[in-house]
Design brief:
This protein is of the alpha+beta class and 667 residues long. It contains 27 helices and 10 strands. β5 (376-382) and β6 (388-395) form a beta hairpin. Keywords: Hydrolase, Metal-binding, Metalloprotease, Protease, Zinc.
């Protein structure tokens, strides 16, 4: 059982440990280079390299988490600084010609040719990654590429800091917040001095989105959306443009027409043409004309406007009128429904579902260290064998300086530890996986528990899907552990689990009114499910907008983010962006990990729905189906390509039928 992880590092300790790891890793790489050609073996090259990967990644995972969650700004800043140092070091080592040639010498040895399974895959992928780092380029171009990559690392870290450290807020009189639930209003901070008599609204998710969905005062919604959209400011929009320009330069140096072709080559989609065909084809199938007209008519009726007056559906309007439509036409009131989802009870219910289908047991541990008093930690065991499997941490409430969205962080990946003297076939010592869910749900008050909106319940299922993808992984080589799969496959596991938030049996399991203690009534569940695809085109075209914005930046040479964003938003969503905003100011996905990859959310959804159909074809809580998915999807990590993993799970080629049904395009 893991119990040695610390979270109370000082900035000085973080710097010292990072420098020591960098020095140790460089020393090892130098030793591999120093070996005589023909003398490199698994024992002196491959196994130590895999172990070096593990140690380096373990520390990077800790500093990545603390940079986004520590309550100490000095710690957050130091973590970002050393994260940049470690990224630059990794870039430097990945572009060492002498190290590449040394590893190539090992790869051509009889020792390497006899490898099988994950170790063979490791050699193949490492050679591929060396080549994609520019090792086939002349030295002058290779050095230029190295400097460009380092510059991008610095710019990416600055981007994240600007968003996460943003402290923007607005102040409103109570009447300017008309329509907001009383419990929500009671949770706001009262102003002092020049803001006396007003209420503070932060740019955290639990403040912003309830206003956009519930506040009847249009001017308030407008001010909040604009302020929210300005997080990161022009500085971040400029950083995004510079980062995309540098990516283009890197791709050109490597011989690609655009960065997207370079990035997607190693994903399931394989090419930017395939991605654009997928996104544009989906756009052709999703017409939002009738849906937008219905919202405009609802706005006309609500505001008592004349028949001849032009009705504009503004960016700060559509969520409000979508929610109003759900209440009036479908009798689905998200604010009323949230009373059935007190966080503690709903979380326990979701855990119970994961327990049933995956054959696991969770036990809360109150003793181990954590980085904040609100953080909860659970040990995970296999129910049948009682073996320890891994750990999860939950950090679910907002606070200053914390990552302001929902995400899964990895602290440890499941793999074998490869000590000196390790031999193939050794069972060895296993490093157990640890995952963290970071979210920003509404905090409980003295009188009311934290209550989740239904879409937040879906988010919880989703993020826990990522956590258990890591925790249930059981592979030998850290490079392929957990979520280390193609980027356009990684959402499949979590999106599959979202579906449990839409089934009557599971909704009964996870709901209990915080006052009456009764579960969701059957009639209300039926209404929720019936209304699931209301405005499906509006909602999905918004995802298409983000995906196409990302692809445009990474396939063309126009990096004017404001111009591209405004044009695409109007063309795809038929709604204009709010004035004085630019999504490039805070679109962190395309800075860290999802560049030329945001399409992955829709792409993965095709596979997620196909996998979930296995549950629908049996019992929704089928342990047999759950075991199949655990063993063939969750536990294998990236030991095979995503398409082969899907075929192993489904027993056939994947298809789009379940996906099209899930978004209302097929009966």
């Amino acid at each position: 059982m893991e119990n040695g992880i610390r979270f109370d590092f000082t900035p000085e300790e973080i710097k010292e440990k990072s420098n020591a790891l960098i020095e140790e890793s460089k020393k090892f790489n130098d030793s591999v280079v120093g070996l005589e050609d023909g003398k490199r073996t698994a024992k002196n090259t491959l196994i130590p390299m895999i172990e070096d990967d593990r140690k380096f990644l373990n520390w990077q995972c800790i500093i990545s988490l603390l940079s986004e969650t520590s309550t100490n700004k000095e710690v957050r800043d130091m973590c970002r600084e050393v994260d940049a140092d470690m990224d630059k070091f990794a870039i430097e080592q990945s572009m060492r010609e002498d190290l590449f040639l040394a590893f190539k010498d090992y790869a051509n040895s009889e020792d390497a040719k006899s490898l099988t399974g994950q170790y063979k895959r490791y050699v193949e992928r490492t050679l591929r990654d060396f080549k994609r780092s520019g090792l086939d380029l002349p030295e002058e171009k290779r050095n230029k590429l190295k400097e460009l990559k380092k510059t991008n690392t610095e710019k990416g870290i600055e981007f994240s800091k600007n968003v996460n450290e943003d402290k923007s807020k607005l102040w409103f009189k109570k009447e300017e917040l008309e329509g907001m639930p009383k419990n929500w209003v009671d949770n706001l901070t009262l102003g002092k001095e020049e803001n006396e008599g007003k209420l503070q609204v932060t740019m955290n998710y639990p403040d912003v989105f309830p206003i956009l969905k519930n506040c009847t005062v249009e001017e308030t919604r407008k001010q909040v959306l604009i302020k929210f959209g300005q997080r990161g400011g022009q500085e971040n929009a400029t950083l995004t443009e510079e980062i995309c320009q540098i990516r283009k330069e890197c791709a050109t140096l490597l011989g690609y027409d655009c960065y997207a072709d370079f990035a997607i080559e190693v994903k399931m989609a394989k090419s930017s043409e395939n991605v654009l065909e997928f996104l544009n084809g989906l756009a052709d199938q999703l017409s939002d004309v009738e849906e937008l007209n219905r919202l405009r008519e609802l706005k006309r009726k609500t505001l008592k406007l004349g028949e001849n007056e032009e009705i504009v559906m503004n960016d700060w309007d559509w969520r409000y009128y979508h929610q109003l439509l759900m209440k009036t036409e479908y009798q689905v009131d998200p604010e009323a429904i949230r009373n059935y989802f007190p966080l503690e009870y709903t979380l326990e219910g979701i855990f119970n579902i994961y327990k049933k289908i995956f054959g696991i047991t969770l036990k809360e541990d109150l003793e181990l260290p954590r980085w904040h008093k609100d953080v909860k930690k659970f040990d995970v065991f296999d129910t049948k064998t009682e073996d320890f499997v891994g750990q999860i941490y939950l950090d679910l409430y907002p606070r200053e300086g914390k990552y302001n969205h929902a995400a899964a962080f990895t602290l440890r990946k499941s793999c074998l530890i490869h000590p000196e003297g390790f031999s193939f076939g050794d069972k060895g010592v296993r490093q157990y996986p640890i995952s963290v869910c970071v979210a920003n749900f509404t905090k409980p008050t003295k009188t009311t528990p934290s209550l989740l909106l239904h879409n937040e319940v879906t988010t919880l299922f989703h993020e826990l899907g990522h956590l258990f993808h890591n925790v249930l992984s059981k592979v030998d080589v850290v490079k392929f552990a957990g979520t280390s799969v193609e980027r356009d496959f990684v959402e499949t596991h979590s999106q599959c689990m979202e579906n449990f938030a839409w089934h009557k049996k599971s909704l009964k399991e996870i709901s209990k009114h915080h006052e009456t203690e009764k579960p969701l009534p059957d009639e209300l569940i039926e209404k929720m499910i019936a209304a699931k695809n209301v405005n499906t085109a509006i909602l999905n075209r918004r995802q298409l907008f983000y995906g196409l914005f990302d692809m445009t930046l990474h396939t063309q040479e126009n990096f004017n983010t404001k111009e591209i964003s405004d044009k695409l938003r109007k063309e795809i969503c038929h709604i204009e962006n709010a004035p004085d905003t630019n999504i490039a100011s805070n679109f962190a996905h395309i800075i860290h990990g999802y560049q030329a990859g945001y399409y992955s959310y829709l792409w993965s959804l095709v596979f997620a729905q196909d996998v979930f159909s296995l549950f629908e074809n049996t019992d929704i809580f089928s342990a047999e189906t759950g075991l199949l998915i655990r063993e063939k999807l969750f536990s294998v990590g990236g030991t095979e390509d995503g398409m082969q993993i899907l075929k192993n799970v489904l027993g056939r080629e994947p298809n789009k039928d379940a996906f099209l049904r899930s978004i209302g395009l097929k009966k």
